Amino acid sequence: MILAAGFGTRLFPLTIDRTKPAIPFLGKPLVGYVAEYIAKFGIRDIVVNLHHQPQSVIEALGDGSSFGVNIQYTVEQPDILGTAGALDFARDHLKDDTFVLVNGKIITDIDISKAIAAHKRSGAIATMVLKENHKREKFTVVECEDGCVSRFGPHATPVTEEELRDFEHIPIPLMFTGIHIVEPALLDLIPRGQYSDTVTHIYIPYIKDGGKIGAYVAQGNWYELSTIPRYLDISLAMMDGFNVHFGKNCTLGGSAGLKDSVLWDDVTVGDGAVLYRTIIADGVRIEPGEHFENAAIVRADMLRNCDEIPEKALKGYVQGENYIVPLN
Known about the structure:
The protein has 328 residues and is of the alpha/beta class.
């Protein structure tokens, strides 16, 4: 099951007309990478949960055949049900066998087959796939004991290079990758028809009652695209030596200068315009001579499609026909 029901408020305004998993990433919808990733391990039958702007995900994935999978959808209406509530809503699809649960906003090459094997050996009702948080990014610390999750701590605390040199004993915190291996028996722990979070409402009480949630520490690349700066940085890191990505039907004027930027579809860049570390969304026109850096840009008329700007969104301003969001 792929979780794709979120609102994507921290990615606004890139998510004005689509939900987070449906945003394009280097020419493919983000959730498409997740579907292809799962398919590599022989898992072909996938359930995708929907809530916010559900049609954007359906248009991105279709029946799944383009990504090597068979997709069925569940639509949570009128309310979003959370990561555990999503399983309740999809229990008829999941009740007969061990299943993999994956967040729809990640890109990774972690070996799921090894995680499944470790899960089967553990006898746990569910296993969380973890990774060492070497950069101590702001993710919840997951503490483990004897191959099982024992506690969920606060967010990781950044450590300077000097501190690492002075205190070599500082442990590397573990973080959750958004990948679970789950037994159908877990469905019996999920309340019917109400919002519930897998970690907060299911795993934590289950552990306190003596239950076993497995912990598999994986190796491999892992990226989570939940903010606009992360989206841009990860795009640049995955461009294979290029520093600009062009979507379909982009037009570039003479003497325009582009570096470290991502252009979606139908973008026009006028003569002499300069773009550095920018994300340009569908249909945007950059006027001749304009200069932008460290920004995400969408058409200003897109704002008419939303009732309000989300509280967690970066603040922007209208300039001409565009809405500009500074990233720093």
